[in-house]
Amino acid sequence: MTTTTKVAWIGLGKLGLPMAARIAAAGYPVQGFDLSAERMTLAEDAGITSHRTLASSVEECHLVFVSIPDDRALLGLTLAPDGLIEAMASGSVLIETSTVSIEASARVAAAADARGIAYLRSPVSGNPVAAESGTLSAMVSGPREALDDAAPVMNTFTKAQYWLGDEEQARYAKLAINLMIAVSAGMMGEALAMARKGNIGWEAMLDLMADSAVGSPMVKYKTQPLKDRDFTSTFSAAQMAKDLDLILGCAHGDGVAVPLAAQMREAYSSLIGTGHGEDDYIATIHHTERLSGLPAIESASGARG
């Protein structure tokens, strides 16, 4: 299928590029922009037309998607003079897919509204593998009619879009989901340390966890990497620490008690401080094993992790 509907994608990182590539593969002309020349080359290889300037990348595009790392990048990209909000046409739709704070998102919403731009907060749940397979879930808030416009394109890289309201509801939802993921990673670390102390085989316990009442999609997804002691990052410990800072700020601002979030933030601080910041977030295993006096396990390949 080929369509004349042009789409812009700003931010072609580990998650942004596979999402944009799926849109291009579905037949939509995609205009891409990223500060990294390497990412732009990869985008060209995926059928995305790279642009040297932010302004040219959004020309004639009714839908503009953004995928960036944090608040600072979002505010710099959107609100700076000659930034994205200024470059976009009135009546277009800005779809922001990242995990950012409520406060930063609200500032973008105000600037977009002043320019007559519909703003969808649309953080996604999943990892680069899910992005490549088109099975991400999108939490969406903002004008419902804008989601109706964007849904056909979003269907190329998501399995579902959950519309949650007109304002910042999607930001709250994404932070709540990431809190559950962080705490689940901590629980898995403690459970596996207990099992090792009880002389249960590493792989046997992982199989049991995956097949038990707590065998969530996350547990199942992490079972094989943990069997292999493979901590290659799909979402790093440092990134999880950043998200936990957002969660704590959001919760404290709204008077919500989140002791588990605070505890996990300290656990990730420990991981970062001991050289595991770029490991996958499931490296909480290292933290609980170290606290429990357990040695590293040798993987099937002979590596110790």
What features would you describe in this structure?
By secondary structure, the protein is α/β, with parallel strands linked by helices. It has helices spanning 16-25, 37-45, 54-57, 71-79, 84-87, 102-114, 128-133, 144-154, 169-197, 202-210, 217-227, 237-253, 259-273, 284-291; strands spanning 7-10, 30-33, 49-50, 63-66, 93-96, 118-121, 124-125, 136-141, 158-165. It folds into two domains: 7-167, NAD(P)-binding Rossmann-like Domain (Rossmann fold), CATH 3.40.50; 172-291, N-(1-d-carboxylethyl)-l-norvaline Dehydrogenase, domain 2, CATH 1.10.1040. Helices cover 51% and strands 12% of the residues. The strands form two sheets. Strands 3-2-1-4-5-6 form a six-stranded parallel beta sheet, sandwiched between helices. The chain has a three-stranded mixed beta sheet with strand order 7-8-9. The longest helix has 29 residues, at 169-197. Residues 171-286 form the 3-hydroxyisobutyrate dehydrogenase-like NAD-binding domain. Its EC number is 1.1.-.-.
